[in-house]
Amino acid sequence: xxxxxxxxxxxxxxxxxxxxxxxxxxxxxxxxxxxxxxxxxxxxxxxxxxxxxxxxxxxxxxxxxxxxxxxxxxxxxxxxxxxxxxxxxxxxxxxxxxxxxxxxxxxxxxxxxxxxxxxxxxxxxxxxxxxxxxxxxxxxxxxxxxxxxxxxxxxxxxxxxxxxxxxxxxxxxxxxxxxxxxxxxxxxxxxxxxx
Length: 195
Prior knowledge:
Elements: H1 15-66, E1 70-75, E2 81-87, E3 106-112, E4 121-125, E5 132-135, E6 155-160, E7 171-175, E8 180-183
Antiparallel strand pairs: 1-2, 1-5, 2-3, 4-6, 6-7, 7-8
């Protein structure tokens, strides 16, 4: 028969062990939180750039599928949202309204707002004053606007409105005749992601 033990064994942590654990967590949080914020903002830059590249690819495919000119419109005044529109004769040459689908002569194929996961992002096109890239029915990028002769943008820079240039993972989208490519303007020249 077993005799009950007169000593009771207690399990747990002492106050000193708890304070050491809290101090270690505090130090880790102090180091990790700024890096986490930088990572979040760089993720927003990547989301915006990938959204634009996907939109350009969709615009090119829409031009081929509809056998008509298709345009990709970025509206900086409207939180840098973008639209893909198919033009018909008599269409406005510079659509950038709150509702591009309501403009006469344009048929909206798709749109996206950059406020859906890409806040605090600055989008700059190479041709100031224009917010359009257009593809013909063969899926080839048009160099100028057939309606008024203005040059379309061929490069888009995406950067952060919050991070410093050293922290920011800026991205650049370069449009070629039939494709678009995303690269990093701050990457060393030997890097595969360099522009």
